[in-house]
Amino acid sequence: MSDFNKYCEEAAKEELPDSEDEEDIGDEDTCSAQDLAAEFQLKYQPQDEVSVSLQREYVLSLAADQEFSRIAAGLSNSAVHIYNLDSGARKLENFSYLPPTESPHRVSICGVRFMDEGPHNILVGTTDGYVRLYDLRLRGEQARFKYTQHPEVPPVPKSLSCFDRNANGRIICCGTEQFHSNAFLVFFDVRERKQMGVYFDSHEDDITSVRFHNQNPDLLATGSVDGLVNVFDVKEPDEHEALLNTFNTESSVARLAWHKNAYDKDIVSCVTTTGDFKSYECEEGDELSSFVRPDVTAAIRRRKAANFNLINAHNQEDGGVFLLAGTNFNKGEILRSVSITSKNSLQPLANFQGNKQIVRDSLFDAKRGLLFTGGESGIVTVWAQDASGTAVGGEKLKVRKEKKSRKQAPY
Questions:
Q1: Which of 60, 180, 217, 256 would staple 167 via disulfide (CB 3.0–4.6 Å)?
Q2: Straight-line distance from the first to the last Cα atom of the chain, in angstroms, rounded to the nearest whole number
């Protein structure tokens, strides 16, 4: 069993010892409160908070429809809470609840995604190997996707570690743990309700993140414990021809995201399990930025990198990119963001005051400037900018040619 699935099984237990139970390592800001207020010119406050469970459940995955009118929170026990967002009051209202998967074994969530632009159809992935489709206007699941073994493909594990759907809602891609020396990307046709094929030559360890491009339905990025980020054109007839580029992060991939740079080129970014951040220009293969854990720790003005937690990378309305980061200190009370202003520069952006948990996932509504977070205390929080804050924008990443350092494409 992979480390990922061991974690998910532990996360589903009621008496899970989590990061908030660990003894704090002493930590502090590296500047005065006055300097902190001056540098982080955006001040965010919680506008609403909802607790997903009276039991001890993590929020592991968040999703929103295109208009951010509906928010879904996937839990460590595989249940999903769905809320309507009152955009005027910035409040979450209970809408629906999908109960935990019935199984003799511990099952956790491995992803939640709205299937298309609307707020009605939602996909829920669980570590028992299923992706289920629900129409929130109807009762019960509408479809269930699970891999059926093909005689010409090596044995595929029964569990899933991650999944995503493409931009037009036609294809689902699921990642698996390593099994018999192979790690698999499994594809399904949503409309035909059938499996399409499998990639198994491009990663050598557990697949931890799969992310389709936001607009191009054929462009897929995948990341793994093996440290590789692969970019595929899935309309190609086989895996070898589909593989467009491979980047070696020299770490272990935790999360991927898509961006655009100043020249409207596609950028894929990676948050690693060691708290580093890297971004790459997909076509040319150039590394555009690279920040190690101490870099981002210093940028959020904290002293101890050992407490640091890099959560996510989000796109701003002006085309900039910011990193959301926190610490494990004092149950995660520190939550801040920094803009990527150049290849080697991070600028303090926002301070999120009043955070009550170690954050596991986040969403950002760039049009309204709203941030949504979920985490280890089972809280979903809606954050909005304090009226006294002054907007600070990041710059788009620019291409700078340099010698590439990546593993040879594995074929």
A1: 217
A2: 26
pTM for the structure as a whole? 0.89
User: 182 pairs with which residues across the strands?
Assistant: 179
Using left for φ > 0, alpha for ψ between -120 and 50, and beta otherwise, residue 378 falls in left
Q: Is the pLDDT of residue 125 over 50?
A: yes
Residues 6+ apart with CB under 8 A from 389: 41, 42, 43, 44, 350
Cβ neighbours of residue 152 closer than 8 Å, sequence gap 6 or more: none
Strand 345-352 to 335-342 pairing: antiparallel
Place of tokens 């707020």: 119
**Residue 66 vs residues 116, 203, 243, 314, 388: alpha-carbon distances, Å:** 8, 31, 29, 15, 28
The three-state DSSP-derived secondary structure of the chain is CCHHHHHHHHHCCCCCCCHHHCCCCCCCECCCHHHHHHHCCEEEEEEEEEECCCCCCCEEEEEECCCCCEEEEEECCCCEEEEEEECCCCEEEEEEEECCCCCCCCCCEEEEEECCCCCCEEEEEECCCEEEEEECCCCCEEEEECCCCCCCCCCCCCCCCEEEECCCCCEEEEECCCECCECCEEEEECCCCEEEEEECCCCCCCEEEEEECCCCCCEEEEEECCCEEEEEECCCCCHHHHEEEEEECCCCEEEEEEEECCCCCEEEEEEECCCCEEEEECCCCCEEEEECHHHHHHHCCECCHHHEEEEEEEECCCCCEEEEEEECHHHHCCEEEEEEEECCEEEEEEEECCCCCCEEEEEEECCCCEEEEEECCCEEEEEEECCCCCCCCCCCCCCCCCCCCCCCCCC
Q: What is the mean pLDDT of residues 130-142?
A: 96
| Token reading at 197 | 């094929």
Per residue in 344-362, pLDDT (tens digit) is 999 999 999 999 999 999 9
Q: How confident is the model at residue 262 (pLDDT cuts 50, 70, 90)?
A: confident
